[in-house]
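Researcher: Here's the sequence for the chain we discussed earlier.
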Amino acid sequence: MQSMQSLRYDLRNMRREIAGSQRVQLDQAIRKHLAKLVESLVVTSLAAYWPFDGEPDIMPLCAQLSDDGVDIALPRISSSGKRMEFRDWQPGQILADNRFGIGEPVNAAKKSVADFSLILLPLVAYDPFGNRLGVGGGYYDRYLESARHSSTPLRVGIAYSLQEVKLIEQHDWDIPLHAVVNENGWFTFGQ
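Model: Thanks. This is the structure I predict for it:
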């Protein structure tokens, strides 16, 4: 089995190397499928992410959803650098780059896990069983620990289909996904 570090390196490179016009098409397809999921669930609040390092860009849809009255929040790394929290986000809001170069809300209301009906998670890889491989910081796993055994909020990975792998080795601290959205649709995992 390929090491997690090697897998992260390879898949992040593959994701970054998606050509501009192809990326636009893939991102549009992902947003289309995600919009259908949000509509079918009647989502009123969701936690999203600011795209970084070749991640699918869901922000045009988030802006549209915000305009339609859905509460949107984005992650912010705590000052200690060990925890992540979510803060309210509105289209046009000024973001500050964190130590990783990812835009995050600064002076906005803090949200708890219970505030969301849907959490959209970026990822490096996922497998057919709902296992997710992130960049390795454990931020999402720590944030979601209190909802580990709950079906709410719904945990949905956002990815390109090229990020699917056969199996991701799991640890006790890993929090599985309920579903994934890629350019081919949205797919649930039996939990």
